[in-house]
Amino acid sequence: MTVARPRTLAEALGALEATPDAHLLAGGTDFMVEVNFGHRRPTDIVALRRVVELQGHEHADGHVTLGAMLTYAEIEADLAEDFPALAAAGRTVGSPQIRNAGTIGGNVGTASPAGDTLPLLVALDAEVDLAGPEGTRTVALDEFITGPKRTDRRPGEIITRVRVPRVTGPQQFLKIGTRNAMVISIACLALVLDLDARRVRCGLGSVGPRPLRPRAAEDFLSGEIDWDGPRAAPGAVRRFAELVAEACTPITDQRGTAEYRRHAAGVLARRAVERSLQS
Amino acid sequence: MSAEHLHDLTLTVNGVPHPVSVPARRLLSDALRHDIGLTGTHVGCEHGVCGCCTVLLDGQPVRSCLMFAVSARGHEITTVEGLAGPGGELNAVQRAFQECHGLQCGFCTPGFLMTVTALLAENPSPTEDEVVEGISGNLCRCTGYQNIVASVHRAAALMTDGAGEPRP
Amino acid sequence: MSDAMSRPGTLVGQRVLRVNDGKLLTGAGTFVDDLHLPGTLHAVVLRSPIAHGRLVAFDAAEALTMPGVVDVLAPEEARDATRPLRCVWLMPGQGQVDYPVVPRVVRHVGQALGVLLATSVAAAEDGAERVRMEFEELPCVVDVEAALGDAAPQLDPGCPGNVAVDLPRGDPPDAVEAAIARADHVVAMRFAIQRLAGSPLEARGVVASWSPATGELTMWSSTQVPHHARDHLAGALGLALDRVRVVAPDVGGGFGPKDHLYADEVLVCLAAMRARVPVKWIEDRREAFTATVHGREQIHEARLAFDDDGRFVALHSDVLADLGAHPSNVGAGPAFVATGMLEGPYRFDSSGGRVRGVLTNKTPAGAYRGFGMQQAAWVRERLVDEAARTLGADPAELRRRNMIRADELPYTTHTHQNYDSGDYAAALERATELVGEGLPAAPDDGRRRGVGLCSYVEFTGLGPSAVQEIVGFALGGYETAVVRVEPDGRATVLTGVSPHGQGLETSLAQLAADALGLPITDVRVVHGDTATAPYSAAGTIASRSMTVGGGAVVRAAGRLRVKILDLAGHLLEAAPGDLEIIQGVVQVRGSPTAAVPLRTVAEKAWLAWGLPPGMAPGLEEKDLHDPQDISYSYATHAAAVAVDLATGRIEIERYVVVHDCGVIVNPMIVDGQTHGGVAQGIGNALLETLVYDDVGQPRIATFHDYVLPGTGEVPDMVVEHTQTPSPFIPGGMKGMGEGGTIAPAAAIGNALANAVPEIAHLVTETPMTPARVWGWLDAAGVATDW
User: Which residues of chain C approach chain A closer than 8 Å at the C-beta?
Assistant: First the structure.
C-alpha cells in the first residue's frame, strides 16, 4: 500500500493520475474503519488533509464556500453564525476526537445515508466543486449523491469545495439516535426558514438511500406560513409533518424499523418548525 | 507477493523524535505501541468509538486507530506517557483521577486522560454539561462515569489552584 | 495522602486511595497486548463464517505462500491434539457435558476452527483471507422457541428437541399450581430479556510460550480465573498441571465472560507449542462479538398470585434460556440462579419454576455480571408493580407488606436460599424517600414522568464448596491467602483471587494492614500468577473476591498477628495479650516504651534466632476460607424517568441506590463498583442488544450498533449504604460487584409503566429503546405526533 500526502491540489491530482484506483483519504473517520475491518484493502491512498487549496472557508456573494478539508470542529468554531444547523450537525457527529478529524468533504464524498451534515447541505441547495483531469465542474449536491455511499465523482476527480448559499432565517438540526452522542442517527432532519425567499427548506437523513428533500412538504408549508411572523397554524404544521413522513423511504435495520423512522422524521419536522417559529 | 514497502519517518512523541520504519498501512496506534514501545495508548475497538486510543496531535485529541502513522509525520504527538513530570510525579489530571477514583481496570484511562487534558487546556473551568459533552467520545465500562466527571472538575480545580498544569 | 493512610488499625471502612493507580495513570500498566517476547508470532484464529454446517474442505496452501505466514494449524490437526473442554456447571441430566476445541460441525458464526501464524498481525490477517474453507451447510435455528419446535434442526444428539437441561425449581409444581389457584388474583406476563455482550474494553487476548527444554507452557491471558484456566488448559492439551502456568497480567475488565478458558485460547497455545516460539493473539472487537460468550437471553412465562389484601401467595416462572450453540462452562447456570433468586425479598406461600436450557445456532451464553439475578429482578419486580396496579395499591406499600422482616431472618426460601441478615424494608423505605428528594419540579415539556422501584436480594460469595457440590458446579468454593511479614517488616499478601479493576490490591491490603498494625503503604498484594498465587478454583467471579478471598486474608493475617504477638511477647518479656501493633511497632498496651519494631520481630523470626521453644521460623501464615453459607446482599433502587410520548425516548432524571453489602472495607471502591454496575444495568435497560438474522449471522458486531452507555446516558446517582455484617464471613463483608447491574432495568421499566400506565402491560422486554417504547405507545394509542 502507498500513501501520497500532497500539499497542493496539482500534486493531489497528479498523485491520483499516477494511481487511478487510489482511495481519497480525508479525516478517515469512515474510511479507516473499513480499512481496519478488512472491508477495504486499498493499494494506494491519496491523503488530502494537507492540500492547501482544500482548507478554510470564504464568504462570497450570497454563499460561503467550505474547503473540503474543513473539519466539524472548525465549522463549529467558525461558521456557527452562518450555519447554526451545520454546526449543530457537526456537534452530534460525536466526540471531540471525531470532530477534529471528520471533514465536510469526507462527509459529502462518503455519501452515507446517515451523514449528519448532508440534510442541511441539501436543504440549502449546496453545490459541490470538483477538480479533475478534465478541469473543474460544479454539481448540485442533491444530484451528486446518487445512492447509499454512491456519488457522481468521476475517476481522477477530487472534491475541492462545497458552496453553501447563505439564507436569512432560523435553522434547526434535530436527530434521533439510541444514544445521545457518538451514535449513527435513526433519523435526522435539518430545517431552514428562508425568510427572504419565503421558502421552507428541509433535508432528511437516515430515512432513505440518500439525503432527501421533502419538496411537497416544503411547498405546502411555504404557502401556509405567514412570513411576516413568521407564524403557522397548528394544522399546517401537522400536515407538513405528515408530508415529511410521506417523503421518507426508510429501511428497517438493527437501529430502527422503517415505521419508526418515518414517524420519527415527522416528529422531528414538527419540532423543528415549532422551534423555528419560536426563535 | 512481495514484502511491503517500508516508509522511514520520524514521529515526535512527547517531545522525543522516534525514527520508525513502517508500512504505509501501519496505524498510528500500532506504531506507538509496537514500533516505539509506548504501550500506554490502548486499542479497544479499532473503529473509532471507544476512545481508548486517543492521543493528542498538536494538542488536539484524535483517535490514533483511525490514522495512519505516516499521516502523523510532522506533528507533535502526546501520549499518556508524556503526562507525568520528569520525576514521575502525577500531573493534575492524573492526580484528580486517582483522588476521585476515576478509574477501575485502567484500560480506558489513558484515552480519558488525553481527552481531558485537551478539554481543560481549551476550557479551564468547564461546566457540568461541558464536561459530559467533552468526554462523550470516550467509553468506560467500569466506572459509570460519575467519578470520571468528578475527576475532571477536580483536575480543573487543581489546575486553577496552580497545583499543576497539565502537560503539554 | 488521606488520613486513613497514616492511621493503621483503622483502615477498614476508610476511603483509602487505590495503591495500584499510579501505573495505570502513567501508561505503565501491563495488559496482555503490552507484552512483547522476542520472536513472537502473531495468530489469527480461523473461524466459521456460517451458523451451522459441516466443514468439508480446508485448504491453507495458498495462505502458506503469503509473505510472513509461518504456519497454519488445521482443524483436523487441532482436533487430534486436544481433548474437549468440560462444562463446569452441570445441571442434573444435562445432555451435553463438554464441547470440542474444534468441532466437526460448526454451530455458530465465529466458532474457532484453526489458527494461522505470521510474523505480523497484518500478515496474519492477509494470510487468513487466503485460507479456503468449504462447508456443507445445515439448516439453522436462531430463535429459542423455534428451537423447541418439531421441525427445528437438531444440534446435539444428547439434547433431543434441542433441550440440554430441563429442571423443576422450588416447590413441587402441583403445590405451586394449587397455591396459585386459591389466590384471589394472578398477574401473568411473558418477559423477554435480550442477549448482551459483557464488553470489557480490553477484549480477550493470549500470549503463549512453550519451552521445549522444560516442557513448560506459560499462558499470559486476559482472564478472571488463572487457576481455572490453567486446569482446563492442561486438561485440553493433556499436559501435567505442574507444567502449565497461567498469568493474568493487568486485565482490562471482565464482567463474567473472562471466567473460563476458551477453545481459541487452547488453539493459540497449541500453535505456540508447535511453532516453538511465543505466539500472541489479541481478539479484535468484531471478533469478540461472536467469539466471546454472551449473556442474559431468557424468556420467562411468569405468574404472581396474590390476595385482595395484597398478600403475595405464589410465584412461578417457566424459563427458556437460550444457551446458544452448546452449553458454556456455566450452561444453564444463569437460569438456575434466576429461578433460585426469583422470590427476592418477599414471602410467598409457595414458589417455584421450571428451567429449560435450549440450544440455538448462536454464540454460547455464559456468565455476565448479574448472572440470572438481573432477569429475576426484572420479572419479579415488574409483576409486583402490575399487582399493585391491579389492586390500586401503592407499589412501595405492597412491597413493604410482603417483605421478609428483619426479625424473620434468617429465612429459608422455597428454593432453599438461607437469607442471612439485613433489613430489606429499611432499604426500601430510604430509597423511596431519597428518590423524591431533590427531584426538580417537572417542566411542562409534554413528557410524562414516573418513578419506579426495584428491591432485590443478591446471592454473593460463592462457595461454600458443599453448596457447589450440591448444585453440580465443579469449582471449589474456598479461597486461600498467604500473609507474610518480610524480614524488612513489610507485608506481602498472596491471594488466589484475581482482580481486574475491582481494587482488591487495595481493599485486601486494608484488611491485612489492620490485622498487622501496618500502614497501607507497607502491604503489597500479589495475585494473578499460578506459579505464585495460592490455588483458587473459582477466581474472581460471582461477587466472591472480598467475601471468600477477603475472609481468607482476615484469617491468615489474624493467625500471623498471633504469632507476631507471641514472638514479640517473648522478646519483650510481656504477655502477648497485653501487646498491640501500632504503625509497625509492637508495644505493651498503654506503655509505649516497652516496644519492639515489627521489623526486628521479623528479622528474628526469619533468622530463627531467639525463638521461643517450639515456634517455627519465619513470619508467614496461610489460611483457607470456605464459607459456612452464602452471604446475601440486598438493595432497593429507585428511578425517576421522563418519557417522550412522540419519540419513545426515556430519560433518567434521578437514580437512587440504597444498598447493604455488610461491612464495607473501602467505601470509595464500593461506590465505584455500584456506579459501574448501574451503568451496565442502564445499558441493559435502554441500549444494548445483540441481534441475529434468520440464518444466524450477527447483525451487530461493532460499538456503532452495540450501544454502550456513554456519559450522556448515565445520570449522577445517589448511593447510600447500610451495613449488616455477614454472619459467615470473617470481617463481615458481603459481595457487591454485581449488585448495581441487577436492578436498573426493573426500576426503569417500573418508572416507565408508572409514567405511562396505558402501556404498563406491554413493558416486558428490554432494551427499552426509543423505537421499542414508541411501538408500545403506538399500540396503546398514547403516542403523540410530537
Answer: 125, 129, 286, 646-649, 686-687, 691, 699-700, 704-705, 707, 709-713, 769-771, 774-775, 778, 783, 785-786
